[in-house]
Amino acid sequence: MKRDIETDLLDWKNSKMRMPLLLRGARQVGKTYVVETFAQAHFENLVSINFEEHPEFKDCFRTLSPSNIVSEIEVLANLSLIPGKSLLFLDEIQDCPAAIMALRYFKEKMPELHVIGAGSLLEFALNDEEFRMPVGRVQSLYLKPMSFYEFLDATGRNKLRTYLDLINLDNPPTEAIHTQALRCIREYIALGGMPAVIDTYRQTKSMRECQTIQTALLTTYRNDFGKYAKRIQVKHLQKVFQQTPGLIGKGLKYSHIDSESPSRDIKIALGKLCDAGLITRVYATHASGIPLFAGMNEHKSKLFFIDVGLVNRAMLLDVEVLFQQDIMLINQGALAEQFVAQEFLAYQDRHDSGQLFYWIRDKKGSEAEVDYVVSIGNQIVPIEVKSGSTGRLKSIRVFMNEKKSAIGVRISQKSLHLENGLLSIPFYLVGQLRRLLFEELLHRP
What global pTM score does this model have? Predict the structure, then answer.
């Protein structure tokens, strides 16, 4: 299955300023598959080392000399590493911190050799207070679950994706394509973006089989908790992981996760799961200027899970309901907001882990909250995820009046159109949102 990150990997391969690369992301999002597929297409050979499966290779990194490291790897693997023609892939690299440290020396002493490191628990090694990241000598790319558009490619609907790439306000989707695309959205929300689930669906077309894979993935994540923390902390990790799907889009209070545990323990557990890529924490911002994080309020946030399909499974939601009800009515709109958050993260710059913000005003008698705010050029744009027929837009109007916003966005099942400064975007065009906003803002005086 083709992944959009392959474009970034090709840019990295061809760059004259190339550094060793760390491919980062949660377990089971497809890091190993992506690297192996990329190597097959663009290199003469791949030398792949998995430190978890073959710990004997750790001994190659007792030295930081790239020439010595390469010589020993060639002997152990019985393969040749030819600079410019070979890719050295260091998988589960967090099991060998010395290998991460050695990456800087590949940049300095053997820059012509292409080197990629990846690992499911890599963030824990990099965030360890005793570890020093080789800053300026290593670059990163972040891989997320498959986006809706990658899902279209994977399920043989690439023509729909190409069609959506060309859509604009002067050329909106026809009613027939609008209906078809919304059905694809429902399908994606049921399945999610985990590669193993989508691959199972491609082969079987069975939602039941896909649910079995989703259950196995949730179990895999729970089984990893012992690797994240000491035994006494595991119960807090389990509690946060279990409760998050039911708290999506709601203002976070640690007592909502576990009223009996100290807030400090829940905060630490939440941080661990955010590091693991299983949870995303979205912070409120005053949205008074750019960058948005300058106005971030660390005491107000809401949570999202790694994947919308896994939210369905964790909540034991009936898949049939997804194809029958208004998307915004399912689980009180939480699935729709999870989908939008996931899509926003999927299309952000893959050189960064990604960050999302929302806006809230707590003034008594005039409370208001906007689901997301994004910056487009020098403009701050408020975004609401609303029902196609009944969604109220009071908060977004409050924001636009207070912040003098040029335009606002509603994401819903409604068709693409612009009315009274509000751009209505159907769910299937979230991936086109920035382009559509740029085009509209450019047309304004």
Answer: 0.93
Q: What is the pLDDT of residues 340-365, one digit of tens each?
A: 999 999 999 999 988 999 999 877 76
State the Cα–Cα distance between residues 431 and 152, nearest whole angstrom: 12
Q: Three-state DSSP class for 362? A: coil
Neighbours of 353 (CB within 10 A): 17
Angle formed at CA 110 by CA 352 and CA 102, multiple of 5 degrees: 60
The reported pLDDT for the residue numbered 442 is 72
pLDDT of residue 389: 45
Tokens of 59: 């001994």
What is the spatial distance between Cα 53 and Cα 356, in angstroms, rounded to a whole number?
36
CB atoms inside a 10 Å sphere around CB 313: 23
- Counted residue by residue, the chain has a size of 445
> 364: alpha, beta or left, given left = phi > 0 and alpha = psi -120 to 50?
beta
Q: How far is CA 71 from the centre of its chain?
A: 37
CA–CA distances in Å: residue 261 to residues 190, 248, 366 = 33, 20, 33
Q: Which one-letter amino acid corresponds to residue 72?
A: E
Q: How far, in Å, are 48, 165, 210, 442 from residue 399 at the CA level?
A: 51, 30, 41, 22
Burial readout 237-259 (b: 16 or more C-beta within 10 A, e: otherwise) = bebbbeebbebbbeebebeebbe
What is the spatial distance between Cα 57 and Cα 72, in angstroms, rounded to a whole number? 9
Q: Which of 235, 238, 232 is nearest to 219 (CA)?
A: 238
Backbone phi and psi for residue 320, each to the nearest 5 degrees, phi listed first: -60, -35
Q: What residue type is assigned to position 422 of the chain?
A: L
Take residue 329 and report the two structure tokens written for it.
């009515």
Distance CA 376, CA 318 (A): 38
Dihedral sign for Cα 377, 381, 383, 388, please: negative
Three-state SS for 168? strand
